[in-house]
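Ligand-bound model needed. 2-phosphoglycolic acid.
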Amino acid sequence: MRKKVIAGNWKMNMTPTEAAALAERLKNGADTDKSDVIFCVPATDIYAVSQAVKGSNISVGAQNMFFEDNGAYTGEISANMLLDMGVRYVIIGHSERRELFAETNETVNKKVLKAFEKGIVPIMCVGESLVQREKAVTIEWIRMQVKVGLFGVKSDAAKKLIIAYEPIWAIGTGKTATSAQAQEVCSAIRAVLAEIYDADTAEATRVQYGGSVTGANAGELFGQPDIDGGLVGGASLKDDFIKIVNY
Ligand code: PGA
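Prediction:
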């Protein structure tokens, strides 16, 4: 049985002061027995939020990291820096990073490998654009993103991995994928995991849905057999996140 995992992706929102207050408010009321709960916050908020959630079962995650250990990479943050701050989860390859910061399946793969080498669990994001969905190449696209993203990742690691299926057209648009659309792709992700690894690995890996998840649609989405929780953007900054966690 896979435990649900519900992660908030706060994106580039909240100063450390605001972040601590939000984390304080959200931590009370979030049922962490039913689901693993992660706040993926801006790097500058990690310390403040870690302090705020102390004593709860909520984990603090990052939204990105670089694949080199150290060196002349101005502005980047390494896995060791995150680890030293207590971070155990990191979002890798969010579509905003792919679109706005030119991340490719290859850089995603390097980051996923580095995260596993250091003992940080990657939340690897995949998802199709509206044009790809309309051209009916969604499944092929997602299969390629998963295969390249996981190149060289061993099955023991893949069992701990979290994959977030996030259709780009559903992110921040208020247009949620239907539970049938989301289930179809999450099940295809599990099928490709079974091809790359084996049935055990495919059964163990957690696959989230992301894209306009709210307290109102979380139950329907998370009730699908291959959807193991969600990656939540906009609603993770509001009290609605508690409803999502306690769906
Ligand atoms: P959204 O964002 O919930 O605001 O659509 C999801 C995400 O980008 O992870």
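The beta strands are 4-9, 35-40, 59-62, 89-92, 121-126, 162-165, 206-210, 229-232.
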